[in-house]
Amino acid sequence: MNRWLWIACLVVVSIAFIADESEAYARRRSYTSRRRSVSSYTARRRTAYVARRRSAYAARRRYISSRRRSYLRRRAVLRRRSYLRRRTTPVLRRRSYLRRRAVLRRRSYLRRRTTPVLRRRSYLRRRAVLRRRSYLRRRTVLRRRSYLRRRSYLRRRSYLRRRTVVRRRTGYWRRLVARRRSTTIGVFSAWSTWSACSKSCGGGTQKRTRTCSTSKCSGLYTVSRPCSTVLCQGEQCVVGTQRKSTNGLQCICRGPPGKWFCCRLRKEFHSLTTTERDAFIRAFKIASTNTTYKAKYRALIETHRKNFNRGIHNKKQFLPWHRWYLLQMENLLRTVDSSVTLPYFDWSVHSRQPRNANLWRADNLGGDGVCDQDGENCCVTTGPFSKSNWKTSEDKCLERKFEGTVPNMVAVQIAVDLPLSRFQTFELTLRGTLHDGPHCAIGGTMCTGSASDAPEFFLHHAFVDSIWWRFQSRSLSHRRQDFYGSNTQLIDASGATAHQYHNQEALPGNVAVCYEGTARGLIPVDNNVISIAQRRLSLMKPAQLFGIPRSKYTSLSKRKNALKLFHVPKSTADKMKKLDGLLQSSSSATTLTTPLDKMKKLDGLLQSSSSATTLTTPLDKMTGFNLNGVVQNTTISG
Q1: With 0-12 CB in 10 A as exposed, 13-18 as middle and 19+ as buried, what is 124?
Q2: What local confidence, expressed as pLDDT, does residue 623 receive?
Q3: How many Cβ atoms from other residues are within 10 Å of residue 46's Cβ?
Q4: Distance CA 328, CA 316 (A)
Q5: Is-contact 292 335, C-beta < 8 A?
Q6: 521 near 473, Cβ under 8 Å?
Q7: Residue 525, burial from CB neighbour count under 10 angstroms (0-12, 13-18, 19+)
Q8: Helices (H), 240-290
Q9: φ and ψ at 519, to 5 degrees?
Q10: CB–CB of 421/466 below 8 Å?
C-alpha cells in the first residue's frame, strides 16, 4: 500500500514539474519572439532613416552643383559682356545688338507664323530642286560619255576600213596568209667563220652569222665577241720607248719591228712615288675594311690559310699557285683603284739590315712590333697597319719580329743563273732559301700559317715571282720548263691549271704582268748605284759571281721556326752546318737525296767562302758585299 502511494506521489510531482517547465519554456519563447520583432522593426527604421539621409544629402549636392553651374554661367556671361563693352565701340555694340534682336524677332515670327505643315512643304520643295539638279548633272555626264564612245567607235571603224583598203592594194593579206601557212620551224645552218676584227688593237669586235632553212627559226642569227683587246698606242713605235696608258697599264715598245706591249707594271716598293705608295696602302686598307670588298678579301686570305699545309708549298704547286694568288689580290685592289698594281720588296738589297729598309717607316707599312714581357704578341704600333688602326682577318693585331739577315743580290743572281738542266735546283733554292727564310726574318704574322694576313706577304711573294720570271726570261726553253703537265689543277683555284700561269705575259683574263728593274727580263728603270750593280751582276758569269766577297746571311739551319712552319723533315739536321759553308762544286762527294738535303746544300752554296769579308761603307753593310767594287768593275765578260 505504501509503495503504491509513493509511486502516485512521484507521478504527481513529475507532472507538476513538467507543467512548470512547459510554462517557463512558453514564456521564454514568447519573450524571444517579441525581442526579434522589436529588433527587426528597429533595423527597418534605421535603414529607412539612412536612405532618407543619403537621398537628402544627394539632393543637396545636386542643388548646390546646379547653383554652382548657374553661378559660373552667369559669371562667364557677365564677364564676357563686360569685356565686350570695354572692347567694342558703342557703334559695334549697337550693330551687334540689332543683329541679335533681328534674329530673335525673325525666329519668333517664324515660330508664330509657320506651322509644321508649311515647314514640311518648304523642305519637300528644296529636296525636289536638289534632286532635279543632281539628275540633270548625271544625265549630262552619261550623254557625254555615250557620245564619246560612239564617236570613237565611228572613227575606229572608219580607220579599219581605210586600212583594209590599203592592205588589199599592197598585197598584205596574201603575204600574211602565206606566213601563217608556213607552220614548220626551220633549222639553222652552221655558223660562218668569224669575220676580221674591226680593230687591230685597243678593243674591236668579230661577228659570225647563220641562216634559217625557212622563215621561222628560234635563236640568234648573229653573234659577236671582243677581239684585239691589247692596248695600242699606234702601229709604229721606237724600240725602248715607254708610255703609261690611261687604265693603269705600262706600255713599252718592243722589237724589231717596234710594237707596243702593255702590261701591269709591278715596281719595287722603294721606287714608287709617294702618290703610288699612298694609293697602294689606301687600296689595301679599303679592300680589307670596307664592307663592299671585305667579304672577297677575307675569302682570299682564308684560301691561303686553309691550304697552307695542303700542298701549295710543294714543287708542283708552289710557283704557279702563288702567281695565281698574287693576280687575285691585284685584281681585287684594282677594283678599288684601277691605277694600283702590286709592288714587290727586294729584300736582297737590304740583306744585312732588312729592318732598316724604308718599307718599315711609319708612313709606309710601319715598323717592328713591340713585344710583351714574354717576348710574344709583338704588335705593330706605328704606321697605317698599327694595332690601333687595322686588324687582320682574324681580328688580331699585325705582328712583326725581325730576326737575322737575308740572302743578298749576289745569292739571288746565282740562283737565277743556274742552267736549265738544274731547274729542280733553282726551284728548291727559290722555295727554300729565298722564300722560307725571309718569311721568318720578318717574323710575327709572316712566320705563321696566317702569313697572308700581313700586307708584306704580297710584296715578298711578288719578289719571289719576279725571280722566277727572271729565270723564265732567259730563253723560251726556260719559260717552258716545269714539273707539271698542262692539265695539273691548282689547289682551290676555281679550276685554274698550272699551265695557264706559266707565262706571265699571257695570264687568264687577257692580263699581262711585268716587273720593273735593271736585270734581264725586267722593264728598265733609271740608273743609280743599286740598279747599275744589279745590271752588272746579271751580266757576270757564275765563276765571277762566286768570286765576289760577301758576308754570310742567316741560313735555314738556324731558322728552325721556318723549317717547322713549312714542315721540312728533320732527318738530316746534323748536316746543316756542314752544308752551310759549301760553295758550288762539282767534285762534292756528298750524296743528297731528300728535298731538305738539297735545300740545305743549296743554301750553303749561296754563301760566300771568304771568311775575311770587310765591309766599310754604309751601302756595303746594307747589301752585304762590296757594292762599289761591282759597279766600278769594267772588265765584266759574258
Answers
A1: exposed
A2: 67
A3: 10
A4: 19
A5: no
A6: yes
A7: middle
A8: 274-289
A9: -75, 165
A10: no
**Following DSSP, what letter does each residue of 42-71 receive, concatenated?**
HHHHHHHHHHHHHHHHHHHHHHHHHHHHHH
* One-letter amino acid of 367: G
**Cα dist. 55→42, 43, 48, 52, 254 in Å?**
20, 18, 10, 5, 120
Q: What is the DSSP secondary structure assignment for residue 170, as one 8-state letter?
A: H
Half-sphere exposure of residue 547: CA atoms within 13 angstroms, side-chain side: 9
Task: For cell 705608295, name the residue.
Answer: 277
| CA distance readout (Å), 390 to 296, 379, 380 | 17, 11, 10
| Rounded Cα gap, residues 524 and 517, in angstroms | 5
Give the 3-state DSSP-derived string for 324-389, with helices as H, strands as E and coil as C. Answer: HHHHHHHHHHHHHCCCCCCCECCHHHHCCCHHHCHHHCCCCCCCCEECCCCCCCCEECCCCCCCCC
CB 612, CB 550: distance < 8 Å: no
DSSP letters along 23-42, please? HHHHHHHHHHHHHHHHHHHH
- Which residues neighbour 300 within 8 Å (Cβ) at sequence distance 6 or greater? 325, 328, 329, 332, 452
Distances in whole angstroms, Cα of residue 253 to Cα of each of 228, 271, 463: 17, 22, 24
Report the chain's C-alpha Rg in angstroms.
Answer: 54
* Cα atoms in the 13 Å half-sphere on the side-chain side of 572: 20
**Three cell numbers at 233?**
698606242
8 A C-beta contact, residue 370 and residue 402 = no
Question: What is the tally of helices (H) and strands (E) in the chain?
Answer: 19, 8
Provide the CA 252 distance to its chain's centre, in angstroms. Answer: 36
Which residue type does 379 have? C
C-alpha cell read off for 496: 685554274
Q: Provide CB contacts within 8 A for 172, sequence distance 6+.
A: 166
Give the model confidence (pLDDT) of 510-552 as tens digits. Answer: 888 988 875 555 655 555 677 777 788 888 887 787 778 877 8
pLDDT tens-digit series, residues 86-111: 766 777 778 888 888 888 888 887 77
- Would you state the pLDDT for residue 580? 36
Please check the confidence at residue 600 and state whether its pLDDT lies above 80: no
- As a whole number of angstroms, the distance between CA 371 and CA 380 comes to 9
Which of 76-85, 180-189, 195-204, 531-540 comes out lowest in average pLDDT?
A: 180-189
The count of residues in the chain is: 638
DSSP conformation letters of 456-492: HHHHHHHHHHHHHHHHHTT-HHHHH--SS-TTPBPTT
Report the amino acid identity of residue 533.
A
- The cell for 570 is 728533320
pLDDT digits (tens, 9 = 90+) for 40-85: 888 888 888 988 888 899 998 889 988 888 899 888 988 888 887 7
Residue 462, C-alpha cell as written in the block: 711578288
Q: Is the peptide bond before 257 cis (omega within 30 degrees of 0)?
A: yes
Q: How far is CA 233 from CA 87, 199, 314, in A?
A: 93, 12, 42
